[in-house]
Amino acid sequence: MVRQSALVVVANRLPLDDSAAPDGACEWRRSPGGLASALHAILKQTPATWVGWAGGIGDAPALPDIGSLRIRPISLGQDELRGYYEGFANSTLWPLYHDAVEQPVFDRGWWETYRSVNRRFAAAAAEVAEPGAAVWVQDYHLQLVPAMLRELRPDLLIGFFLHVPFPPPELFMQLPRRVELLRGMLGADLVGFQRPQAAHNVAQLATKLLDAESTDDQITFAGRTVRTGAFPVSIDVAEMRALAARPDVVAHARQLRADLGLPRRVLLSVDRLDYTKGIEHRLTAYSELLRDGRVKVRDTVMVQVAVPSRERVESYRALRDRIEGEVGRINGEYGRVGEPAIHYLNQPFDRAALAALYRTADVMVVTPLRDGMNLVAKEYVAARPDASGALVLSEFAGAAAELHDAFLVNPHDVDGLKETLLRAMEARPADLTARMTAMREHLDRHDILAWARDYLTTLDQSGRLVAWLPRQARPPGTSPTVPSPASR
Ligand code: ADP
Ligand code: G6P
Questions:
Q1: 299 catalytic, yes or no?
Q2: Which residues line ligand 1 (CB under 6 A)?
Q3: Of 232, 238, 245, the residue nearest 478 (C-alpha)
Q4: Mean of the pLDDT values across residues 43-60?
Q5: Nearest CA, atom 23, ligand 1
Q6: pLDDT over threshold 50, residue 42
Q7: Known catalytic residue: 98?
Q8: pTM of the full structure
Q9: CA 352, CA 363: separation in Å to the nearest integer?
């Protein structure tokens, strides 16, 4: 007998550790990636079902519930992994949606696999959703699921949220299957994006490709109206604040600084190893600052955490080779015995270790060429209890629209990036405190719960979905704000 839920989340990836503990217990793996980080924070205590892939090939492992959250794993075969995940999702849609910073691959063989795997996710969601349930579909992997699900279960309330940017129409128009992809997504009742521009792009495309009547907040076609809007995703601010204040984390941060040789300044970057993150541009800028003698190795240390990602995709393998070659070259040229110019860490860290790294960093360097949001930037801000530290942030990250007080930069402009890095390194403490305080106040009001409340109350105005969200202690004097649709 299949257990059904009133709230079902469907995302490609389950945030679970697929290597189970010896006693068979299963722990949350905060898998590196914004989607899992964000949803984990709101779902861990919610009576919902999460439908997703646990990683790996072949039969899906039987996974126990996690607290009140049920897990419904989806299996992927070798060919499906190749055609759906590595192929259409991560070699066609991912680069295209990120401004084609890497050439998208159009392989006609991948489409059928993408479609059949989407069908499998839709069927699983239909099976575990109770009558009248709300199903919240996530991200570009599953863009066909909303329409498939509506066909299977017209009684459901269906939401879709895209964590990555939605591209300008001229890029989207390159997709050979553009009509199906648009129709698939618009099978939802509410389609959410990180930025208002995305809703605008979709409205234009719907008018052109589907002959729809479209505005930036609703699209009417084939007898239905779909609402759209921007809902900028966020982080579990309270969790990161609490972690950063823990005595063991503070001690770890102090130890890290000592291990780094007690430099005057620590620069930190934390990324999935992805070509959208601008790691190469950043390394070029840093290396030129070293070459020009504007940054000295003993005085300043850079730490680059680059967790492996999508390693079977050729462009990711090639990127890793290039970055490791460049780090090696920079250290060979500018490092000294026991004093590398860049500490390069190609490994996952737990949340406490990440918090300690954030506390150690005087300058956080977040310079993606394009990013839907970038939660790392928000995590850094939340992890600075004394409001010290500088955030250097790309204009092309969704987070830049909220964190105006960061040192904003165009990462393609390497000279501008060098100057901004120097400005951030040399800024007066009072300036940094003012900037950081403003960003912290913004995050307190716009945390992950505010995001989920905003999305779910817009999806279902009765408030029944919001009632399941965890209640979290908030710092005094702050309250969750739900921006009105007009202010988005
Ligand atoms: P993306 O969604 O493209 O991966 P984000 O910056 O939005 O980028 O989210 C990345 C998430 O992954 C953050 O929550 C961050 O803490 C986490 N993360 C990044 N690097 C690591 C790492 N080395 N170990 C563990 N978690 C990581
Ligand atoms: C981004 C995507 C997520 C994805 C994550 C990690 O955040 O928006 O959907 O889960 O990257 O990527 P991966 O391919 O490891 O799931």
A1: no
A2: 32-34, 37, 270, 272, 305, 307, 348-349, 354, 373-376, 379
A3: 238
A4: 88
A5: 348
A6: yes
A7: no
A8: 0.94
A9: 19
